[in-house]
Amino acid sequence: MQGNKLYVGNLSYSVSDSQLKDLFSNYGNVKEVTIIGNKGFGFVEMENPEGAGKAKEALNDSEFEGRTLKVDEARPRENRPQRNYDSNRGRQRGGYSRY
């Protein structure tokens, strides 16, 4: 593995940051855990790529809290295009509007 940040998918909505940190700490030092609220996925940043590789190999397709985890190397965040914003009216343009 090249990076040390992992994507963790198919999480139970009841899983906490500390539970995920405890799970991944079996494979190396965990720097940061971020669960994306009510989306069923999150990110775990390990201290080094070796720990991330071990965690990915051990935990991908394993069961945790009644769900089968999907663990993969996190991809770099994409730049999203800016939203079309009408500064004269303070709202987005397009779509249905009663104005």
How does this structure look, described?
With 99 residues, this protein is of the alpha+beta class. The chain has a domain at 5-73: RRM (RNA recognition motif) domain (Alpha-Beta Plaits, 2-Layer Sandwich), CATH 3.30.70. It is 19% helix and 30% strand. The protein is built from 2 helices and 8 strands; from the N terminus they run E-H-E-E-H-E-E-E-E-E. It has helices at residues 17-24, 49-59; strands spanning 5-9, 30-36, 41-46, 63-64, 67-68, 70-73, 85-86, 91-92. The strands form 3 sheets. The chain has a 4-stranded antiparallel beta sheet with strand order 2-3-1-6, covered by helices on one side. Strand 7 (85-86) and strand 8 form a beta hairpin.
Structural class: alpha+beta
Count of runs of 4 or more consecutive helical residues: 2
| Main β sheet profile | 4 strands, antiparallel
**What series of H and E elements makes up the topology?**
EHEEHEEEEE
Rg, alpha carbons: 18 Å
Q: Which term fits the overall shape?
A: globular
Overall pLDDT level: 88
Q: How many E strands?
A: 8
CATH class of the domain at 5-73: Alpha Beta
Residue runs with pLDDT of under 50 for 5 or more positions: none
Q: Which architecture name of the domain at 5-73 does CATH use?
A: 2-Layer Sandwich
Which strand order spans the largest sheet, edge to edge or round the barrel? 2-3-1-6
- The CATH topology of the domain at 5-73 is given as Alpha-Beta Plaits
Q: DSSP strand (E) fraction?
A: 25-35%
CATH superfamily of the domain at 5-73: RRM (RNA recognition motif) domain
Please estimate the helix content.
10-25%
